[in-house]
Structures are given as structure tokens and as C-alpha cells.
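From: lab user (bench 3)
To: helpdesk
Subject: output format question, protein + NDP

Hello, I'm new to running complex predictions and I'm not sure whether the block I got back is the full result or only part of it. Here's what I submitted:
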Amino acid sequence: MERGATEMRAALVTAKGGPEVIEVADQPIPEPGPGQLLVKVAAGGVNFIDIYQREGVYPMEYPFVPGNEGAGTVEAVGEGVTTFGPGDRVGWSGTLGSFREYHLVPADRAVAVPEDVDLETAAAALLQGMTAHFLVHGTFPLGPGHRCLIHAGAGGVGLLLTQMAKMLGAEVATTVGSPEKAELSRAAGADLVIDYTQSDFAAEIEAAWGPRPLDVVYDGVGASTFEKGLTLLKKRGMMVTFGNASGVVPPVAPLELMRNGSLFLTRPMLYDYVAERADLERRASDVFRWIAAGDLQVRIGGRYTLDQVAQAQVDLASRKTTGKLIVVL
Ligand code: NDP
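Helpdesk reply: Thanks, we reran it on our side. This is the complete output you should expect:
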């Protein structure tokens, strides 16, 4: 069936379930409401949250259009929008529904993409870049003399987090799942890289840096790494559990934190660190500025079409990918 000019293609998660619940459907191109931008999407970023939402780890109403971030060009603006106009290049994160040809983005959640950053890179960098930014500047502000551990160091967040931790002068240990990933993590600046599929990362870290050497663990892997991470922290160190790639971390007794040396435990979420417009702009503009200056490398590890959204999620969950996956519209 031929589509009319008022219709667009959209990925659709039809029900809670595996990748097979994702389809591509025709939908009407929406009109921007008050405060909204209608954006012609250039690319959307693939994130682990897409999988949690499809599987129901994070509760959702079905069907829904997946995709939590992207970048594109403003086509039209709704009533009351003065900050952006048609032709402006914008990026967004946390606005569900990005994997479609035209997306509605609240103007107060959009950020300007500078001329010297292309839209695919913007879509690849925004959510994970701002996540890395808040983790090392907000949750546990890193500096010279700190030692940190970053799990999944060759992943989308991991590569950016490693580079930002090095910019701040910290020593960085990473875990990775293959020799190829180890190379990428070293190239991002990691000082100590451990293939945790081959050896015990806790033993390796203590062999290199001594007992309990870490000020902070940034753990996006979750169930399979969390407990061991607690045993590597200095007294009053911080465990930052920010993701569940291997499964959700089970409940922790507060006494465990005491036994391991009066530790701090936090489970942060990007949206609480960019809820204020000023924070959103500051984090996004730092990320874009570092990319434009060549100080932050964004590795696009895979490009997919709208028809391949399910495949992108399968690949991300399979541990075979490195860097960032994007859907190009
Ligand atoms: P990655 O590109 O890092 O992919 C996940 C990686 O986790 C895999 O490549 C793999 O790397 C590692 N891993 C270890 N065990 C498993 C497993 N059992 N199944 C799948 N992967 C596993 O993903 P992202 O960069 O998109 O996200 C990283 C984490 O950050 C996720 O948990 C995500 O939810 C979280 N996140 C949290 C945010 C927040 O606001 N709190 C915001 C953005 C992301 P390896 O092979 O090297 O082990």
C-alpha cells in the first residue's frame, strides 16, 4: 500500500515480550501541540532502556513507539514555542517514540545541536554522554587521585565514561567481555583493563592496586558484578549501580554497607540529573563541545534501519556490540 504524505513509518512495540513483538506500522504524522516541536528524525539512539521497556522491566502501556533519544530537524512548532523554529537542528533524550520518521518533542526537553556536530553523532552521544557526565561530575565527582572501576568499558556508556574519567585525572579500571573490547577500552584511556569472562576482576584489581583500592564503582552491568564490587571499595567509598544489563540487582541489607566499610550506595537515573533545564543544557553542551573539539570520541558500533529495530535490540543484549547503536531514518 502506498503511503500518503500525511503518513509516516514508525516502529511499534505491540505487546510486552521478546523482540518478535516489534513491528513497523504506518501512522499519521502528528501535529505539534502547545510547547511541542514536530521533528523530522535523522537518527535515533538505541539504549538498554528500550529493552527494559519492551520486556516490562520498566512498566509500560502497549502498544508504544520505542526509542528514547534522537536528533533531527524541526519541521514545525506548536503554540507558545519561541526557543526553536523550523530548520533548527535539535537532539533529545527521554522522549519516548523516537523510532519514527516524525517525532513530537517537548521544546523544553530539546537541545540545540551545534553546526560542527552531525545529527547521527548527536543521536549517538546525547543520552549516554549526559549519563557519563552526571556520573563523574554529579554522582561521584571524580578528580586526580581517585581510582574508579567502570564495568562494560567498551559499551556505549563505558567508552564515554572512561574518557570523561580520564579528562578529570582519575585512574580507571574497566571490565570487558572480549579481547577486541579490551583494545577499545585501552584506546579510550583505561589504565587497567580486565576481561571478566576470563578472570576474576576483583582479584585482578587487588593484584594491581592493592586491597580495597577503589573510591567508586560505576556499575551498569548489575546482577553479575554488584556484590563483588562492594568488596573492592575503600572505607566510605561509593557504589553507583546505574544499570541492569545482566539483570536487576537484588535487595541489599544496609548492614552490608556497614560491614564493607561504611559505604555509600546510590541508584541514579539520568532524568533526575537533567530535570532542571539549566542542567540539561550544561550537560548537553559540554558533551557536544568536547565532541566538536575532538576531546570525546563517539564510537558508532552499528547502524540499523527502522525495519531492523528488533535486530538492534537483540544485538545490544547479546554482548557482541561495542560503542553506540543507532537507527538511521
Ligand atoms: P552497553 O553498550 O554497555 O551494552 C551492555 C554491555 O553490558 C554489554 O556489551 C556487555 O559488555 C555488558 N554485559 C555484561 N553482562 C551482560 C549480560 N548478561 N547481558 C548483556 N550485557 C551484558 O549498553 P549501554 O551503554 O546502552 O548501557 C550500559 C548500562 O548503562 C545499561 O545497564 C543501561 O541500562 C545503563 N544506563 C543507565 C542510565 C541511567 O540513567 N541510570 C542511562 C543510560 C544507560 P561486556 O561484553 O564487555 O561485558
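A quick orientation on your result: The radius of gyration is 20 Å. Let us know if anything else is unclear.
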